[in-house]
Input
Amino acid sequence: MDITLSIITINYNGLKDTCELIDSLPLEDHSIEVIVVDNASKNDEASIIKERYPAVIVIRSHKNLGFAGGNNIGIKAAHGKYLFFINNDTILKPQASDISHLVSRLESNEEIGIVCPKIRFAWDDNPIQFAGYTPLSRFTMRNRSIGFGEKDHGQYDTAHPTPYAHGAAMLVKRSAIDLVGLMPECYFLYYEELDWSMMFTRTGYSIWYEPACTIYHKESQSTGQQSPLKAYYLTRNRLLFVKRNIQGLRKYITYTYLIFLVAPRDICKYLLHGQLNLVSATIKGIMNLIF
Output
C-alpha cells in the first residue's frame, strides 16, 4: 500500500513524551508511516524506541541539528504525499484528533500548502494554545496566538487562513516542500516555522487553521519555561528573522526596537529576579548576530 501520510517527530532526551505520543498515533493504519528522528539524545533512546515500536522508522542523528535540521532528516526519509510535523510533547485523543480533517482541508485547494490543527494545552481544563495567528506588527514584530489561554467553548471552530503555521503541529504538502525548500536550519531553535511560513507565502501558498482536528500540547518540556537556551535563541532569532525577511528602513527601525527596547527590558526583568544566567544568554544572543 502506498504511504499517504508521514508523521514526523523529533526526540531529544524525551523518551517518555515521545512514547506517549506514539501510543496515541494510529500505527495500525498502513497508509501512515511514523518517523522519529533522535536528535543526539544523551542516551541511545533511538534503540529503545525502535525495540518498543518495530513499525516506527527511527533515525538517530549523532549531532543535535536543532528543530529544523531534525525535521529535514525526517523529510528526506519520508515517503508520504503529506507530511505531518508534530512535537514529541503532544498527544492525540480519540474523537478530537482525526488527522483526515487536516488532509481534507489541504486537498480542498491547490494553493493551500500548510494546515494546522487547533492546539490546546494538555493540562488542567485544556485551555486553547493556538487557533491561528494574527499578522506580525510592522515594526515591533509582535503578534499573538488567537484564543491563547481561553477555555474552548467552540468560539474558534471555524476554519480560516492564518499568516503563519504553528511548529507544534502542521500538515504540509510534499509537493509544496519540493518547490519551497526545506526548513531553514540557521535558527536551530525557535522561529524556524515562522520563517518557513514566509517562504511558503512568498511562493504563493496559503496557510490554514483547521479546528476539526485538535492536538494537545504539554509545551516546553525540553527547553523549560525560562532557560538560558530559550533566552539566547529567542533573542538571537528575532534579529535573524528580521535580517532574513525585512527590507529597507523598516529593518533598521525594527533592529533598534529589539536591541534598545526589548532586550534591555528583558535584562532588567532578569536582574530583578537575580537570573544572571538569563542576562548573559540575552546579551550573547545579540552579540552573536552582530558579530
Remarks:
- Residues 5-217 form a domain with the Spore Coat Polysaccharide Biosynthesis Protein SpsA; Chain A fold (CATH 3.90.550.10).
- The mean pLDDT is 95.
